[in-house]
Amino acid sequence: MKLLKTITCLCLLSINCSSSKNYTKHRIQDFGDTITIGLEKDNVGVSVWVWCLGGGLTNNERSVGIGIRNGHMGIYQAGGYGEIRILQPAGSRSSMNRMGNSNFLINSNQHRPFKASERAKDKSSDAVNMVLFVPIPKIPDSNTRVAHCNSDLTLETSLGLYYGIRLGINLTEIFDLVLGFAKIDLMQDDIDD
Predict the structure, then answer these.
(1) Distance of alpha carbon 146 from its chain centroid, rounded?
(2) SS (H, E, C) 54-91
(3) Which among 162, 146, 171, 56 has a CA at the least distance from the CA of 105?
(4) pTM for the whole structure
């Protein structure tokens, strides 16, 4: 009985500890990083993504959304930031060359947060592939910026006719959440106050 009282007292005292509050805050934030729910404007078409594989028929180069995506709660851009530069010369005005557009041959998906918090500022990502199943890797030691795959392992879909919706889950962030219970920060996004 004395042992139970001692453990209860220690637990109650630790609730007010700064490190305990940070731990709880980080787990709540990690949980929020795992889901994608967004309403978007200029979202046209249908796409399904698993990591950098997938695509569809979309024209999202001007798509802007509001919601929670990749750990950012607020406004985000879902395409249009940069050129793909695959099978197209730089500066090409072709819609195939713009990030966010997909046509089964060349597919791209993008996330750029507006006014990102300190913990979400490094969570921008690109997913680019050819014929749905060939991800484009980063070209080592290249001076030319070519869009490439640097996305977390996510499952995501979008559907729209001018206004649209984006739903998904981030499996990398779920893994970060689970490891976070053992105080391992895989994504390096647990920033203390």
Answers:
(1) 20
(2) EEEEEECCCCEEEEEECCEEEEEECCCCCECCCCCCCC
(3) 56
(4) 0.77
